[in-house]
Design brief:
The protein is of the alpha/beta class. The protein is built from five helices and 15 strands. The N terminus is likely disordered.
């Protein structure tokens, strides 16, 4: 039906039976930006033109049949602040957005960090989370679920979650000052590289499980921003000069 669409985004499969939910993760394809931002750069860092980025956003959200005027995003700071969104727009300083409003499309920007989308079908609440290593270590997933509980009476056991495409375990090399923030089962020392490898997807999955989700309520993207950099932007792999992807979730009437 939509043969041209999969180039722009991938949908989590966990929500295929939820017609009211619009959830997707962009790829790097189908936009107008030139190298090194080719092509669907949806984020504002770097020297890509604002016109290109805006056109790319319109293309991405149009493909999802979402009006760009309904989107809520935040300028992220690798922190753990959670914002309860009641109207669309651009916010500052939050790495997680939650809402129970229909027709507000939450979006987080990514280029190696872990995106997590959460849906509470009982209360009709959603969350979009940007978890870099700092946010992951700061338990932003747990904090977001607690905010949803306090704001919408969400119970974690009712929720479903998608852990999106990010840097993979074997590519995320860190020093001891980062590794010390992660449990033993989420990191390995690689003597050949003189670095630790940290599993960001695994760390966020562990937080979801600890909060009360069951394993079958969590989908984890099989893709890596580094190993699949032909399809995704990777800040690390492209030495900081690269575009940005979006992970997005919203409820329609």
């Amino acid at each position: 039906m939509h043969s041209h669409i999969p180039t722009l985004f991938r949908n989590p499969t966990i929500w295929t039976s939820q017609p009211r939910l619009i959830a997707a993760e962009s790829t790097r394809h189908g936009g107008v930006s030139l190298p090194p931002y080719h092509s669907l750069n949806l984020g504002g860092q770097g020297t890509d033109s604002p016109e290109n980025i805006l056109e790319n956003n319109h293309r991405f959200f149009n493909a999802l049949q979402v009006s760009y005027e309904r989107v809520a995003k935040s300028h992220q700071i690798h922190g753990t602040e959670v914002l309860h969104v009641t109207e669309p727009g651009a916010y500052q300083g939050y790495d997680a957005l939650v809402t129970n409003h229909v027709n507000i499309q939450l979006a987080v920007t990514i280029a190696d960090c872990t995106p997590i989308l959460i849906f509470d079908p009982v209360q009709g609440a959603i969350a979009a989370i940007h978890a870099g290593w700092r946010g992951t270590a700061g338990k932003i997933v747990e904090k977001t679920l607690k905010t949803m509980e306090a704001t919408f009476h969400t119970q974690a056991k009712d929720c479903q979650a998608y852990i999106g495409t990010c840097i993979d375990y074997a590519s995320f090399e860190v020093g001891p000052e980062v590794a010390e923030h992660f449990d033993q089962d989420l990191k390995d020392w690689d003597p050949s590289r003189g670095k630790f490898m940290v599993d960001l997807k695994g760390a966020n999955r562990k937080q979801l499980l600890a909060a009360g989700l069951q394993a079958d309520q969590i989908e984890v993207s099989p893709y890596s921003t580094v190993l699949n950099s032909g399809d995704y932007f990777s800040y690390r792999h492209e030495q900081g000069t690269t575009g940005r992807m979006l992970a997005t979730i919203g409820l329609r009437f």
